[in-house]
Amino acid sequence: MKREDVTATKVSYSFLKILTGSDLSRRRLPFMRAISGNPGPAVWLTACAHGDEVSGIVIIQEIFRKVRKGKLLRGSLYAFPLMNPIGFEAGSRNITLSKEDLNRSFPGNEHGSLAERIAHRIFTTVVHTNPDVVLDLHSGWMKSIPHTLIDPDPGPDHREVYTRTRTFGEKTGFLLILDTDELKKSLSYSLIQHDVPALTIELGESCVVNEKNVEYGVQSVLNVLSYLEMIVPTPPFSYQIPQLLRGEALKFSDQPFSSSSGIIRFLSKPGDFVRKGQPVAKIHNTFGKLQETIVALNDGIVLGHSDSSVAFPGSPVLAFGVPMTT
Ligand SMILES: [Zn+2]
Q1: From the CA of 56, how far away is ligand 1's center (Å)?
Q2: What's the predicted TM-score (pTM) here?
Q3: CB-based contacts of 79, cutoff 8 Å, min separation 6
C-alpha cells in the first residue's frame, strides 16, 4: 500500500456567499486555502477591498502557484483575493451598489449595511482561523512607492499585538510607515483590536496590474512566510530607498495641503529624498501665474503624489514619510 505523504499541501478554492441580487443571482467571495500536512502558523492574504486596487489579486495567485509547486513546509495559508467583486467589475474603489467603502466597514455587522455584512463575513472567517498575521494588499496613489502601513499604536491593552505587527512590518522588506490617522473601521485596525497582527501593504498604482509591484509584493509575502519557516527560505528582499532613511520607521504626512486653486506641477517624484524647505510642487493659475510654491515641511521621502494635477484650497498634493522625531 502506498504510504500517505503527511507533508503534502492541500490546496482548495471555494466561495462564501455574500449577496443574492435582485435577479436572484448569487454573489460570492472567492476563498483560497493551502493547508500543510504539518501544523504551524496561519497566515492570511487579503486583496481588493478597494475594487480598483487590483495588483494584490495577482500577488495572491502567484503565491498560491508557488505554494502549490513548492509546498508549504508547515502551517496554513488563507486568502480572500477579491474582497470587493462588485467594485472590481465596475472599476470602482467602493462597493458600487451601496457606494460604501469596504475598508471603512470592519469588523462589520451581519444585520448591517451591505458593506458591513460583507465585512462581517470576511472578519469572522479570518479571526476564526486564529491567524499569526494578516497582510492586506492595497495600491495607494498611482505613483506611490511601495510601503507597509502600520496603524497607530492602539494603547497598552493591545501593546503585545502591536509589537508583533511592527516586527512583521519590518519583515515585509518595505519602508515602514506609521499611520497618524486612526482608520478605526479598516480591516487592519479592527484586527489589531481583536489581537490579530495585521498590516496594510500599499503597492502603488491602482486600476491596472503593475507587474513590477506584483514582483515586489510576491517577494514581500515570501519574506514573511520565510520568517515563519513556512517555506524553504528565500533570499531576503528589501525595497531600495534613499540611504539616509534606511532601517528607520517613518511617520506618514500629507502636509502641507494646497492653499490655492490651480494646476499642480510636481518638482519631486515618489522615492525622492527631500530636505525641509525644499520646493516640491508649484501651483499656477490658468494664465501661468504662480500662485503658490509647496515646500517640504520636514526632511523625508516622497511616498507619492496626487493622482490629479487639480489644486484647490485644502487639497493634498504629496505624501511623505518623515522621521518620527519631527
Ligand atoms: Zn486601498
Answers
A1: 10
A2: 0.94
A3: 31, 32, 33, 44, 45, 46, 47, 60, 63, 64
